[in-house]
Amino acid sequence: MEITWLGHSGFRITMGGTTVLIDPWLSGNPMFPEGRRAEAVDGAAAVLVSHGHFDHLADAAGIARARGIPVVGKYDLTAWLEKTEGVATTGFNTGGTVRVGEIAVTMVAASHSSAAMGEAGPIYLGSEAGYMLEHGGRTIYFSGDTDVMADMALFQELHRPEIGILSAGGHYTMDMARAAFAARRFFDFRTVIPCHYRTFPLLEQSAERLREGLPGVQVIEPEVLVPIRL
């Protein structure tokens, strides 16, 4: 499998012969080199979105429309995108599983919030989510924006992910220390990749505390558009 960070919480993930994008915020993302947009989205079969905040949703419809692929996510959010943006969508809900090519995508709970800003204020877009991506007996947990949750113990028992992509920047999500606690307490990861950090000065800039909190686990600090092969 191949995991490529697109900056902030965006990822390009290839499992088997299928590539998906998750929360690809490219336009205006201070970490993403705009001139490499085509490279980031090439070959993608779907755009997965975890919730409605701009730093996760802003580019989803544009990429989906340009490539002729669906946006996959919470039913409320995808129904709104279909109506306002005219893009194809696959809406489902927590606990459900859909197939995107060779990847089985299961939606799991997260603890955050989910809304887009409208002229009259926030537009509620259903609850926030994370994802389990499974192919060939290997599973990746993408936490989405979240804090530590006791539900994570059930995620481990049900899905047994070997790789965790964890929001860990603090302020809006759990920080590195809390992410390390979550991984240590609830999961049996071989590899952990942090995200939702370094984008702004407000967020954590290093994964050192995550690494210190997870002895024996491979903690990989990703670099933008540098593939991680596992």
Description of the structure:
The chain is of the alpha/beta class and 230 residues long. The protein is 23% helix and 30% strand. The radius of gyration is 16 Å and the shape is globular. The protein has a single domain (2-222), classed as Ribonuclease Z/Hydroxyacylglutathione hydrolase-like (Metallo-beta-lactamase, Chain A, 4-Layer Sandwich), CATH 3.60.15. It has seven helices and 16 strands. The strands form three sheets. The protein has a seven-stranded mixed sheet with strand order 6-5-4-3-2-1-16. It has a seven-stranded mixed sheet with strand order 7-8-11-12-13-14-15, covered by helices on one side. 49% of the residues are buried. It has helices at residues 37-41, 54-57, 60-67, 75-85, 151-159, 176-186, 208-213, and strands spanning 2-5, 11-15, 18-22, 46-48, 71-74, 89-92, 97-100, 103-109, 115-118, 121-124, 129-135, 138-142, 163-167, 191-195, 218-219, 228-229.
